[in-house]
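Async update (no meeting this week)

Hi team, since we skipped the sync, here's where things stand on the single-chain job. The sequence we agreed to prioritize is pasted below, unchanged from the tracker. I ran it this morning and attached the output directly underneath so nobody has to dig for it. Comments welcome in thread, and please keep replies under the output.
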Amino acid sequence: MPPKKKIAAKKPAAKKVVKKPESKKVEVPRPHMPEVSGKYIEAVGRRKTSIARVRIFQNTPFSISINEKAYDSYFPTFELKNIIDLPLEKTNLPQKFSISVMVNGGGIHSQAEAVRHGISRALEKIEPGLRKVLKPFGYLKRDPRMKERRKFGLKKARKAPQWAKR
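Output:
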């Protein structure tokens, strides 16, 4: 057997103090809302994973802009434009306001329904009497249907792998 070496007791190393540089607060840029002067009424509309922030500016020429684009170019089909126009048609309000919307998430159809939900909520804030008009059509209700989550052992939410008897 080789001779045993004596192991000297190690002294714990002195802890080094490292000064962290002072962190500067970085402002996160927020999505730019179109500049329209005056006060506005704001409401949020949701559908599936889409979120629409709607601002209605009163006493301005009628216009609808979605993500800083005209709503005709953002929602190209008649069906999507019709979804957005429904609360305005049902209420028969004089069109003396402009609507500015920031919408994100989800698909184009759920975005259109989120915008409809937001416009309906904002119109109700302007004129509480419109609640009786909008509620029967379901425009004030947040549609709770969402995509069901995938479960382990299955291929999708409910689709199971092929089953073999033997």
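Quick observations from my side:
The CA atoms of residues 12 and 18 lie 18 Å apart.
Residues 30-36 have pLDDT under 50 and may be disordered.
Reply here if anything looks off.
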